[in-house]
Design brief:
Structural class: alpha+beta
Radius of gyration: 19 Å
Strand order of the largest sheet: 2-1-3-4
Distance between the termini: 18 Å
Number of helices: 8
Number of strands: 4
Strand content: 5-15%
Amino acid sequence: MLEPLADAEFEKKTLFKNWTLTHVLGHLHLWNCAADIALNDSAAFEHFAASVTEAVVKGSLRAFENEWLAGRRGRALLEEWRAFYLPMSRRIEQADPRQRVKWLGPLRNIAQLGVNTFGWTFGNRGMKAPGAAPRVTLLAPSGATWEWNGDNTADHVQGSATEFCQVVTQTRNIGDTGLRVSGAVAEQWMAIAQCFAGPPEQPPATGTRHPDS
């Protein structure tokens, strides 16, 4: 899909938070490089992860990615991405499948972060949290049940842990998931939930993100 495009077309905005194709491609390329570092040099990846964390606390992930890209965009970025991911794929193919590597944000951590940022979601928008943090009951990919705030009987979010993580990271709208939300406070939270640092952002509109995104 990208091969026929001219440089200018990489600056078109997509349906995801107005990211341009350059933003998307740069994001893919950066995290391909990060995955390659994680596979081959654990200490270097720890240093990289610390840099990401520091940048996000001070500003945003987008700012970190823009600095890393250093102005690379368009077809030049496309060629650099392709030149890297082809040999990277071979290195991954040849790796021991039993090898475990470091990474940022395993699924349970993202769910925990989503719950922990209940109050921050509202405060970041200059709003007061409308009530106590809702009860959250999630079915993990392993089949285990994860639960937080079990004493709240008025508000409840329940369903797939994967879908909950997609909502709090704003990659999907709550309306496009099977999550069951009860109570006014839970409904307000899930409509704007944001577990990542930076200024307030809005979830994608209903129906604009594929169910498997």
